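Dear colleagues,

For the upcoming journal club I promised to circulate an example of a predicted protein-ligand complex. I picked one with 6-O-phosphoryl inosine monophosphate because it came up in last month's discussion. The inputs are reproduced below in full, followed by the predicted structure.
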Amino acid sequence: MPIIAVIGAQWGDEGKGKVVDLLAEKARVVVRFSGGDNAGHTVINQYGEFGLHLIPSGIFYPGVTCIIGNGVVINPAVLINEIDQLNQRGVDTTGLFISDRAHLIMPYHTLLDGLEEESRGGKAIGTTRKGVGPAFADKTARLGIRIGDLLDKEVFQERLRSILEYKNTILTKIYGVKPLSLDEIYNQYCQYGERLAPRIRETTVMLAEALDRHELVMLEGAQGTLLDPDFGTYPYTTSSSPLAGGSCLGAGVGPTRIDRVLGVFKAYCTRVGSGPMPTELKDETGNLIRERAHEYGTTTGRPRRCGWFDAVVGRFSARINGLTGIAITRLDVLDILPSLKICTSYKLDGQKIDYFPGSVAILERCQPIYEELAGWQSPTSDIRDYEQLPVEAKQYIARLEELISCPVNIISVGAERGQTIHKLPIF
Ligand code: GDP
Ligand code: IMO
Ligand code: MG
């Protein structure tokens, strides 16, 4: 059986949680490969509604092994709380494992995330302030502490001692705040380590064994393509790669092992945080979408910026990720609109362009060029068969497929697992 990567194809919150929860029924292993608890993946199924931040959305199927991969940064307090919450609600988490190579979010990371944001003033990125950016920065700067380090208290203490000395210098000398206590952090993280130790593994071996047994492995993306530090709207991005390419690094599999890359798109666009979004609607239609769809962040509760579907982004995302198929979510949100717009290209300084510019300064000058389509103005949430969709909805989907040059496999018409239309088999 193959590996399928499920990737956010816009600015995050596309509905990856719903899609992974749906598809994980057939998987034996699900791996989260990037980000940290900046992610918020909503899953609604027979157990209720969940907002998962770190645990893969495959956790609801007994017998599915869920792995938090090396590419994730882990706040152990958040993870332990998430495990406890799931257990309290009757979800079995014995199949959850953590890569020993995953880096830890330390108390100075969360503190610095807030302090750095405040020091940016009007140029703030609008991070989730979960410490994710500072933790990835330390990973790259070789100042990180990995979860596997907690398994040897002496190693951990020594590493924490030297790093904390440096971090405290920054906290006190640059930001003028109080230093953090070595003993407090050490004791607290030792407790986390004891609690999580039975789950910490060399997870790439587990993955390789699953592949040898020909089991289906799913790689669960966090964030979205336009938040990638290389290909997103830099510097208004996150700090790890949400791309299909990032899934190899963050899970520990070679690119040749990935057979399918499913891009998850909303039927429109949203973004939370700062940075350009060419199709943003700062009008009544934008407000209507936000309220109808309750577009407020799963992690921070912030209102999401809403706008029309951007097919320039769609094409770019398909190319950069090598998408083999698409899941369109939240089609039902558009049910009430009399007409819909799709951005097909941009106007830049009087010229039409159809590529996504690398510079935010240029992107900010781009005006969307729209094509208008008729709305269907009838409910779609109870439809399960593609042919039963209103003709205008089918035309909308067909036009997206054409503009992105990629087939649509799945159409989601509601937040619950079953509210799904399987248009084309993925395998
Ligand atoms: P993720 O981060 O990509 O997993 O997405 P989020 O969970 O942050 O945001 C997606 C939101 O859309 C959640 O509130 C989901 O419950 C909801 N959702 C997903 N698919 C659909 C759908 O087809 N229709 C509607 N109305 N809501 C959906
Ligand atoms: P899921 O997995 C939407 C955004 C933040 C901010 C930027 C940097 O639920 O789709 P960070 O805390 O990562 O340093 O913030 O990235 N961001 C997300 N936006 N969905 C997410 O995750 C996000 N994770 C980070 O809002 O603009
Ligand atoms: Mg989300």
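Two points we might discuss: The radius of gyration is 22 Å. The longest helix spans residues 153-174.

See you all on Thursday,
B. R.
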